[in-house]
Amino acid sequence: MAGTSRTRVQHFAVSLDGFGTGVGLSREAPFGHAGHKLHEWMFATRWGRQMFGQEGGTRGIDDALVRQFSHGIGAEIMGAGKFGPPGWHEDPDWTGWWGANPPFHTPVFVLTHHPRPPLEMEGGTTFHFLDAAPAEALAAARDAAGGMDVRIGGGPSMVRDFVAAGLVDHMHIVVVPVLLGRGVRLWDGMESLEDRYDIEMVASLSGVMHVMLARTGG
Amino acid sequence: MAGTSRTRVQHFAVSLDGFGTGVGLSREAPFGHAGHKLHEWMFATRWGRQMFGQEGGTRGIDDALVRQFSHGIGAEIMGAGKFGPPGWHEDPDWTGWWGANPPFHTPVFVLTHHPRPPLEMEGGTTFHFLDAAPAEALAAARDAAGGMDVRIGGGPSMVRDFVAAGLVDHMHIVVVPVLLGRGVRLWDGMESLEDRYDIEMVASLSGVMHVMLARTGG
Ligand SMILES: NC(=O)c1ccc[n+]([C@@H]2O[C@H](COP(=O)([O-])OP(=O)(O)OC[C@H]3O[C@@H](n4cnc5c(N)ncnc54)[C@H](OP(=O)(O)O)[C@@H]3O)[C@@H](O)[C@H]2O)c1
Ligand SMILES: NC(=O)c1ccc[n+]([C@@H]2O[C@H](COP(=O)([O-])OP(=O)(O)OC[C@H]3O[C@@H](n4cnc5c(N)ncnc54)[C@H](OP(=O)(O)O)[C@@H]3O)[C@@H](O)[C@H]2O)c1
Fold first, then answer.
1. Do B194 and A178 touch (CB under 8 A)?
2. Is the ipTM reported for this complex over the cut 0.90?
3. Domain A7-86+101-215 has CATH 3.40.430.10
4. Within its chain, how far is the Cα of A109 from the centroid?
5. What residues pair up with A77 in beta bridges, in sequence order?
6. Per-residue pLDDT tens digits for B89-118
């Protein structure tokens, strides 16, 4: 490990039944049948509204926690399923969901079996496409992060892979009081995680529950 | 519906990954590989300790909520998997896990494909064995409850069946910060439940999360 650089999952949203995304993902529906359900709480915060150039928003615990998103982060790793809808790699013009100036402002490593040349965006975000095992990808991201933390950006499949590989130091999961019934589960394959992580849960008045998992002694 | 009699799930415990019991259920392990993990929080309460004839215990929100267990309850319905370990119906002497004086003190309807004659225990508990659809079982339990509420006692499979049949008015689910990885899931098949229930979550200092689901307008 490079000094005190940590790997962090930031405000990853799941339904009460544990799904991090729905079914039927497409260009029109980045979360499938989940629609906006997993992130309404976030768009109600001041930080969430600022992301869309809007005024107002809440200043409570939800807002305080989402602001950790970029604090101390030097790079992100994300899965191909977060970067674009199924089939994005067949579209040479696809540059992600986030427009010309994505909200990352750091190098972002996109794990994919269909790598392409790096994509430099406005505002400091460069997408690097990587066909590599989680530990290799993390080594690359740590290098790029210059001693800062690495965000494990999701979706649920790649978070599970990184947890299974023992590569995640901290997870902030937001349980939203909706039941998706179908989709991609976050918690699968994490049996006895409580033996390796301190787990703390706190409810927000907005109705969501923040779950913090911190590697024990980490 | 018979007057104001309601159907209630009381402090049903699930792991963070949504399992209401583990795998490998047996006479020695009523929750399989889950061991005591799902209920340690309850045995720390004053009410939980009293159940075992012990002094002390916490008096906070966990204790207050578990005390709802018998308040206003006139009957319980439980699944065969709660009444005994796999194969209990082949043992004519099996009378449940709870000794001579079970903690129910009302009629209890055990749903099973292997019915047997009623079993009258000490302290007011009588087990009735019923091979019937959820709605029929509820009608029988309501009759026996004399206008009081009916507890939907679990396990997870029968709770799911009763929710799917639209027969549950209130659920108090306790999310415990452990990951079981395997077992019987509670939340499956409840897609869009938030459209029909008000959902409230509150964290306890003990580390568990209480989730209250109340039928909207109910
Ligand atoms: N709930 C939240 O807060 C949250 C956060 C982020 C994203 N999401 C949502 O999650 C969904 C995507 O999640 P997902 O679980 O389906 O997919 P994902 O984790 O984003 O990506 C999985 C895919 O990434 C590629 N990949 C992963 N590991 C790799 C490796 N080691 N080497 C090479 N390629 C690798 C593979 O795609 P290929 O084989 O196709 O290249 C794999 O199928 C989207 O709906 C997104 O909007 C939700
Ligand atoms: N987490 C908690 O708070 C909590 C609470 C209660 C129990 N539990 C645990 O949950 C586990 C049992 O749960 P489970 O989901 O496996 O089983 P369950 O829900 O207790 O029982 C399901 C079984 O009941 C019988 N049954 C259900 N509906 C019926 C119907 N309409 N007609 C006839 N028979 C019917 C069937 O058994 P047969 O065909 O064999 O008769 C069925 O396999 C145990 O480990 C128990 O300790 C946990």
1. yes
2. yes
3. yes
4. 12
5. A109, A152
6. 999 999 999 999 999 999 999 999 999 999
